[in-house]
Write a structure and sequence with these properties.
InterPro entries: Virul_fac_BrkB. This protein is mostly helical. It contains 10 helices and no strands. The protein is about 70% helix and about 0% strand. The N terminus and C terminus are likely disordered.
Length: about 350
């Protein structure tokens, strides 16, 4: 039986740069641009149901209007003003079209299936990254129901974190009313507190997904750094995507569909950041984390890479120590999400 090797001495800057390079190489080797496109597709079509459920659950405690205001405040912080407004338009369209059906049992089931589809796709993507074994994996209707329940549990978790965000924001506002007359710089401090709280909640959401979604054992210590880096990249992405949308006018030629185009652009970026963070978490766990020294299962055969990916993509085997080169190309990686879901 193999055991994890003891942790090495404290890594230096070159080790961290090597780790980042290897995470990026792994991102290419798993055909993340193609995988992220599929993830973005499922995300856009699950966006309306997910937000409707989150607002409805949080609205039971704080009221639907307050929950919606808090949710779009978080989205605006993450996505920027234009993308958040586009998401709000998507939710309004979905809500108008679903009011007639969500009161029935069939409508509720369809709402739950639509909301959990993106999480099933997330699980497939993380299983590919973490080399989750397919042999012996439960299949059939009960396995599908179990996966949907896990996805719904994550939706409940997001709703709970939204409620926490509402409580903390209200507390900061109350402190501002109390201390504002005594402490002149309170407004600046309150903005800093809101930024820190938002970053912490975003990091926690990514940590929950990285920890709970893969069908392998992942330790909490392995996910926190990757989750924090992903949250930081999301904050950077708000600026970059805002500049891209504002300067290029990417949605101007699409007329009424412009809002949907903005959402697709942002969601595709978000999917790539999410997958890169997952790859970093995997590489970190194999290099310095709980999986150090453990054998890596061989990659499964999968579809050919998209155009532009074949020249750089290569399958991974067990990671070598920091600074070592990755193994050479000898095949293809991954199995299609739909193929695995059907198996």
């Amino acid at each position: 039986m193999q055991h994890a090797s003891p942790s090495p001495a404290r890594p230096g800057p070159r080790d961290w740069l090597s780790l980042a390079r290897r995470a990026f190489d792994a991102w290419l080797q798993d055909y993340a641009p193609s995988m992220g496109a599929a993830l973005a597709y499922y995300t856009v079509f699950s966006l309306g149901p997910v937000m409707l459920l989150v607002i409805s659950i949080a609205g039971l405690v704080f009221g639907e209007e307050a929950a919606q205001r808090a949710l779009f405040g978080e989205l605006q912080r993450l996505m920027g003003h234009d993308a958040a407004e586009a998401v709000q338009a998507v939710l309004a369209t979905f809500r108008d079209g679903s009011r007639a059906g969500t009161g029935t049992a069939i409508g509720l089931v369809l709402l739950l299936v639509g909301a959990t589809t993106v999480f099933a796709e997330l699980q497939d993507a993380l299983d590919r990254i973490w080399r989750a074994p397919t042999r012996g994996r439960p299949s059939g209707p009960w396995a599908l129901v179990r996966a949907r329940f896990l996805s719904f549990g994550l939706i409940l978790g997001i709703a709970f974190l939204l409620m926490v965000s509402l409580v903390l924001s209200a507390a900061v506002s109350a402190l501002g009313t109390w201390w504002g007359t005594w402490f002149g710089a309170w407004e600046l401090l309150a903005q800093a507190l809101n930024l820190v709280l938002g970053f912490a909640i975003t990091t926690l959401v990514f940590a929950l997904i990285y920890k709970l979604m893969p069908r392998v054992k992942v330790r909490w210590l392995d996910v926190w750094l990757g989750a924090a880096i992903t949250a930081a990249l999301f904050s950077l992405g708000q600026v970059l995507i805002g500049l891209y949308i504002g300067k290029t006018g990417v949605a101007s030629g699409w007329g009424a569909a412009g809002s949907l185009v903005i959402v697709f652009v942002w969601v595709y970026w978000a999917a790539q950041v999410f997958l890169l963070g997952a790859e970093f978490t995997w590489v970190y766990a194999k290099t310095w984390g709980s999986m150090r020294g453990l054998a890596t299962p061989p990659p499964a055969e999968g579809p050919a890479p998209a155009a532009g990916e074949a020249a750089t993509a290569a399958p991974r085997t067990a990671l070598e120590p920091p600074g070592a080169a990755l193994p050479p190309f000898d095949g293809r990686v991954g199995a299609s999400a739909l193929g695995r879901r059907g198996g």
